[in-house]
Each structure stands twice: as structure tokens, then as C-alpha cells.
Design a protein that fits this description.
The chain is α/β, with parallel strands linked by helices. Helices cover 40% and strands 17% of the residues. It binds pyridoxal-5'-phosphate (PLP).
Length: 405
Amino acid sequence: MFDINRIRSDFPILGTKVYGKSLVYADNAASTQKPSQVIDSIKDLYSNHYANIHRGVHHLSQKSTALYEGARGTVKDFINASKVEEIVFVRGTTEGVNLVASSYLEPRLDPGDEILISEMEHHSNIIPWQLTAERTGAKLKIIPLLENGELDISKLPDLLTPQVKLVAVTHMSNSLGTLNDISPIIERAHNMGIPVLVDGAQSIAHMPIDVQALDCDFFVFSGHKIYGPTGIGVLYAKEDHLLSMKPYQGGGDMIMNVSFEKTEYNDIPYKFEAGTPNIEGTIGMAAALDYVSGLGIEVIDSYEQELLVYATERFSEIEGLQIIGTAPRKGSIISFVLDGIHPHDVGTIMDMEGVAVRTGHHCTQPVMDYYNIPATTRVSLSFYNTMGEIDEIAKAISKVKELMG
Ligand code: PLP
């Protein structure tokens, strides 16, 4: 069912040698590599169909517009939104969160109001809310972590007070791998009339997403983490929310009529897409979603779970290695620390062995603070990784111990 050699041959970069060794790319949580199908879609656009969109009557402009709007339909189907109008193209997860913080939440906040996030959030799902809170006199409240890297959901009834005006929580932690069971959080928040934003930056590439089944109010993700280009991402928002929101940025394409006295805004979603957008990004991202759909996200999920189980077993055998994040439900991310060896040294030596991993706080400093560590080494796996590569990673870790131990 899963022809790993054929799949790997779709990704030209996976054939790269690093210091004469075959590349083992295990930094997929930071960004994924791109299949030829994505690369070719962008080449095809530039070679055959490219012009600016929406405003042109000429052939190429109409062709580009059709591809751009087609990409919106692909996104809608991929996350099962009910309408294309609910899909806003943004620069990435970060811009999606900032858009909601500025255009949705800020006008609704009064001093003393609260925004509920969690202790495992990426900085991009912390700072936009902090900025909004600073400007309005609202404050942040935090769902705490448990030692195994799960959220302490038992605290939710106390935290969800009527002052909370929005809950923003990640679907999958980029530093711990934890998969959060967000449906009960959404349900509980909704029972109190509180909207929920889900940060899908990590989950989008690893599990089926159905925004209608989740019933989340907002869902954000980035194209580059699901095998698409950088500089493009998606804000899904329920239609009623988008209709009630002020524009985020002003400029071309987001208007119906402009005079110096008054501007009438365009319909949703265009009201939120000021200026010439990332046309090639949207088309490349749609090609990436088609690629993932072609493999089947459920098939990807189950293969990556096998990789996770095997890698967890292999790494656990290494003396002095401690896995940070041992929740029962995880995506294919393994963060670890090695006794007495700084993660930056770990990453540098692994790189010499051809293994690309990420070291640092992974833009989740509160998580590092919780575990009282400065950083971890993070192995993040994708469907194009193999069991053999996990052995190579384990060997590279042993090499680190040999050199530094
Ligand atoms: N949220 C999570 C959980 C992430 O892992 C990341 C990126 O690592 C982001 C948000 C931010 O994504 P981007 O930098 O693509 O906007």
C-alpha cells in the first residue's frame, strides 16, 4: 500500500549527500520538503499561465485567477469547510493568528477580559494575544502542562470563566509531539458561548482535518509544513465571524468602491486579502494538498505512527537519553535531552553524520521553562522517512555520546 521508494523518488532533495553521507531529513516539524508535483506546479504556472489575478480581462489573468480560486476550493475540500468564502489566504499560521487577534478579538475586548491559551503553545500562538491584551487591558490565562506533556484539562472548568472571550489552542505540539483532544475543549467553550481558534500548523500534515466536525471557529495552518511552498497559509473562519470582522490590512482587491470620503469593502474572503497575493504559493500549496490526498492522510497517519513507535523504542534504549513529551497520543515528533551534552552540540555532531534535526527551544520557551531545560534535540518524522533512517539517527546519537560523553 505504501511504496516508500516511489514516494521518496518524488522528493528530489532526499537524494542529497551531506558531508558525503546520505541525507536523513528529520526536521519536518520546522518545514517539510517538496515533491516534484509541487515544484512542477509552480514551474508550470510561471511557464504557461502567469499574470496578476482578479483585475485582468486578458487570457493569462483569467487563467491565473482560475488556478488561484481553484486552490481555494482544494483547501476547502481538504479541511472540509462548508464554503470557499471561509478560506482566507494568508502568509502562514503566524499571520492567521495575528489576523484573528487584530480583526476579530481586539474590537471585542474590554479591560479585565481574558484570553485562554495553553502552556504548550508556539510563540506565534502566544505573542499575538499578548499584544492584543496589552492594547486592551485584557489578560492571558494558561491551561497548564502535565509532566508527560499533556494538557491538564481538569483545570478547564476553573479557567473557562465568563470573562474568557476566546480560547486558542494547538492541535499538536511542535516541541512535545502531543496530540491534543481538542473536541471536548471546543465543546466546553461553546457551551459558554466562547469561540475557539485551533493552531493546526503541525496537525495539518499528520491527520485528517474536518473543521465542520471539530466545529472550531478558526483553524490556521502553513503551506510549508504540508509539503507546499513557504509564505502561504490558510485562515479558516466560520462565515459569520468573517462577516463580522473588520479588514486586517487595506489595499487593492479588498475593496468594492473607494473615495476619499468612504471605502466600501469587498465580500469575504477578499476583504482579508489586500494587495497582490502569493499566487504561486497558493497554487503550489494546492498541489501539495492534492499530493497528500493522493497518498491518503489516514495511510500517512498510520505509517508515521509506526515510525514514531519504532523511533521511541530505539531512542529509549540509549543510555542517558530522556524523551521530553511522553503523552499517550502523539504525532511523529520525538524531543530529547542527552545527559550532560548541550543540544546544540548534539545537533552539530548529528549534522556531520548527515542527519538533519532541530535543536533549541522550538519557539516554545514556556515548555522549556516547565521542564527546566534550555533546549531539546527534536527528531520530527514524515511519511518519506524510513525505519532504516531511524537506525541511522540512533547511530548518530550514539556517535554524539562517543565524542562528547
Ligand atoms: N504553531 C505551531 C504549532 C508551529 O509548529 C509553528 C511553526 O513551527 C507555528 C505555529 C508557526 O508557523 P509559521 O512560522 O509557518 O507561521
